Amino acid sequence: MEQGVGQRVRTLLRRIWPQTLAGRMLATQLLIVSIVFVGVGALSVAQQGAGVTDREVRRARQVAEQVTQEPGVRQVLGPQGESWMSQAQAALESARTLSDSEGVYLARTSDGSVVAAAAEDPLRRLPRTDAFEGSSWLGGEGDDDDPETIMAMAPVIVPGEFEPVGVVAVTRPSPSVWDDLATITPNLLTYLGLAGFIGVVGSLLLARRVKRQTLGLEPREIAGLVEQREAVLHGIKEGLLAVDLAGRVTLINDEAASLLSIPQAGAVGHSLSELGADRPLLGLFPSRRVRSGPTVTVADEPEVQSVDRVLLARGRLVTANVRPVRQQGRLVGHVATLRDRTELLELQRDLDVTRATTDSLRAQAHEFSNRMHVVAGLIALEEYADVQDYIRHITADEAELTARVGTAVEDPAVAAMLMAKSRQAAERGITLDLDDDTRLARLDGDLSTDLNTILGNLVDNALDAVPELSGRVRVALTGPDEGSVRLVVRDNGPGVPTGDMGTLFVRGWSTKDAEPGSSRGIGLALVRMVCSKRGGEVSVSNDDGAVFTVSLPTV
């Protein structure tokens, strides 16, 4: 039952309370102004009441002191007092009428009994106060904090005597709250009306400004946008990372934190270096800082913009696109979208193996077709002895290649790759040699696959680098020795330019001209990724051509 009542009250409040931002701000401001009205009014009434009471007390004392100076008042307290009673009564009545007091009394100091009084309901005896001792007294009748009647007493002193012979008391009604409120209402309404007008106008202007800054959106719409933004940021597959000019993280979503292996909780406000980010990631957002006093500011920093930049982060190959962020034409930071290329490149690696096998089969089919044409031609010419010699020759060449590779390389997958690349090279007039020191034992499945990926990409690069009909590529494979496999690929091409040594393994580097979006420039990046993933190394040097050296640990 209580919950039902509470629900109905909340529903009623939601209906009454404005739903728009401007309406809510105006209603809130009006509520605040109303509370201020009540507070100021109560304070003003209290202050006015204290002032009115003080004036009434002073007025009563003034009247009492004036009555004490009347001749008839002094004589009525003497031995012949009865003859002066009418004059004293007239003086008291005149003082009461002129001062608009409730009562004016004259009492003896000996016993406090009232001798003469001008009041509708006169007192018979006055309370004993300091006035009976010769000094004025101010007070009231009733509650000490809120007296119903104000009373003032003044002593009556006869010339030549030092002790008072009587006391004059004046009583006045204590002003009520309504009296105080009626007194201050004109001024109070003026001030509060002016303040209310200023408050309402200010509220409307503030609501209008806020409305403009929020693009006309209401609070519930803003909250919905924030919730939608958070859902999108943390739900998309791409990583999103934003930093300011000082390199501090301003935004990071779940996917970015997972790709970069940095903590998401508490990352905002910290620099990437403090979060333990890899060096390639730090290179995405260079910042040049100038220290001035205790603060750090960024000066003359050009904007950074990268498209499909590949970097290795914690064993993952990540593609990053960096764009500058500007506010009102001023550069405030950069935002990067990150995509995981590892799975895609692993798929491409498998496709490369398939493509190599397909090329090998195509080369074999082409070579077989040519040989069959030769055999058919010799048979047509009835040169049977030449047919036998030709078949014996090609069989010996094939057997020699198979024997040489099979003897040096025990791993069947790597051996198949070498034979396929040999036939592919032969089709282009390029010689692919196997180094005499090659000795490779059988490898486990993962290592064999990784080595085949590296071997296929390096040989393909070498075949592209050397001239056809005169090119030469040499491959050396050894291992596993001391827990690692070593691969060396040499060619007699032009070598690697010295200026490209640092960017050789970055996606997009190629000696061939390629259209944007082509698959060129990804082979060496894939080689580096596989080596880093296994904890191996890859290096390049020049020695009458390019020399690529790869070392892969077996575990």
In short:
Helix content is 47%, strand content 22%. It contains 13 helices and 18 strands.
Question: Secondary-structure blueprint of this entry?
Answer:
Layout: H1 2-16, H2 21-68, H3 71-75, H4 85-99, E1 103-108, E2 114-119, E3 137-142, E4 147-156, E5 166-173, H5 177-213, H6 219-235, E6 239-244, E7 249-252, H7 254-260, H8 279-282, E8 289-292, E9 295-298, E10 306-313, E11 316-327, E12 330-340, H9 342-380, H10 384-408, H11 412-427, E13 431-434, E14 439-440, H12 445-465, E15 472-481, E16 484-491, H13 523-534, E17 537-542, E18 546-553
Parallel strand pairs: 13-15, 14-15
Antiparallel strand pairs: 1-2, 1-5, 3-4, 4-5, 6-7, 6-12, 8-9, 10-11, 11-12, 15-16, 16-18, 17-18
Q: Which labels suit this protein?
A:
555 residues, alpha+beta
